[in-house]
Amino acid sequence: MALFSIQRVPGKGNGVIAASKITKGTRIHAESPFITLPKLDEAPNAKALNDAVLKQLRSASRGDQRAFFSLGNIHGKTLPIPLGIVQTNALAYGPGGEGGVFLMGSQFNHDCLPSARTKWNDHLHKMTVYALRDIEPGEEITITYINLETCDVRQKTLQDGFQFTCSCKACTLPEDICKEMDADIMEIKTIEGFLKSTTEPLEVCLRFAYRQRYLIESNALDFAHAPDTYELASTLAAIHKDYIRAKIFSERHLDIVTTEGGLDHPDTRKQRDMDDYLGSLLEQHHGPSVPYHFSVLGLEDWLWMQHLPEVKDLEEESSEDVESSDEAREVWSEDEDGDMPAFDVETLD
């Protein structure tokens, strides 16, 4: 039984609609490119590119040709029709910057908070689409065309590149809530930059990472190409030789990459190897075990080091490290209402 069908979607043209319930982590579709395009740095001029597209079209079946010419074309008469269709529907794939048109994959519409994700599988030589969450029958299956950005940036990017105004849930929030979400997105991105370059002690890093994960989850940004906090946290814990935390974060990251790309994706295999390696390091060093006697909340506090005293009370801290750690830690002190305060960029200067 087919998982989806192509139907007209009001205001969007064609779209992909779930034919039955699709559970999180299901491979919805896998497809090789119908038209392949050169890498961005090798792109020929418009005429040469159009000729290359026509050459591939001539060798295709009549059915595939009809399917190609039924795809959308936002360029009208400003470009030759084949090239206009390519420019409208091409998707980037592969590590080398290749691009291509997928007869079925190009039918998936955009949402800033999508229900599915496209990912090139170099092992299969196909673009795959996996469900990021449970999708109900009759629901449109969407992907995102852009990275995580604030609302104004998203709208400009989509208007400039695809000539439409996004009216998804994230883009039609009330103005005050939209501004709050934009502020959270900027904070998420700032924390990512900090975590990728910091030399602060692990407890400081994990408290900022905890803040980032909190912002991602509270705004339902897990599916919007948000940073994978677990991958960052695992790397930082491993650098600090805290292999038990590195292993737990690695397991959570493995769950995410498996959901996005499946068990046979090279990224999943690579992460599984890393997870096994961290497990072997943990056995070699006989580090502390997970305190399973904790409650769920207690375990999370332990994992993200929310239970530790101030950095200045920890041993083997230099006075310089203590000063910078204390400044960062002040960001994490709760306000009078017990709410988690915002990430203060000034503490990173």
From TrEMBL:
Region (Disordered): 313-349
Domain SET: residue ranges: 1-146
InterPro entries cross-referenced by the UniProt entry: SET_dom (IPR001214), SET_dom_sf (IPR046341), SET_domain_protein (IPR053185), TPR-like_helical_dom_sf (IPR011990)
Acidic residues bias locations: 313-325
Superkingdom assignment: Eukaryota
Protein name per the record: SET domain-containing protein
